[in-house]
Amino acid sequence: MKAMGKTKEYSNDELTIVWKPDACIHSGICVKGLGEVFQPKERPWIKIDAASNDSMIKQVKACPSGALSYYMKDDANQEAETLETKIEVMDNGPLIVYGTLMVTHRDGREEKKNKTTAFCRCGASKNKPYCDGTHTESDFKD
After folding, report:
1. How does pLDDT run across 26-43, given as a tens digit for each residue?
2. CATH code of the domain containing 60
3. What's the pTM value of the predicted model, to 2 decimals?
């Protein structure tokens, strides 16, 4: 494991999973989908050798906040893949957008988002328009 500021990397011989703790909304999708790898009560919490690379990549791609990403050792400079856009409303949680999109902020700044983006629906996020997990503290229900 290698820490780089607010980013942590977990590597095996071929795959590196990157975790951005500040972006994590603690949806638990990683734990529910691949609990043998993602164990938040353990340290290190990502067991990089506990499943196949393909299984871990599939689960990382399902991360609703984008806090998890990956790269292959041979492709450290790879471009993020472009996905077909899909939108999912999470029960009592964020609006999840899968795919590549351009977000234009109120100040006019544009930001390209790849893979998965979680947008706040509860109105309480301190990272608007993105979800920061505050809906769990505010007991948001829809």
Report:
1. 888 899 999 999 999 999
2. 3.30.70.20
3. 0.62
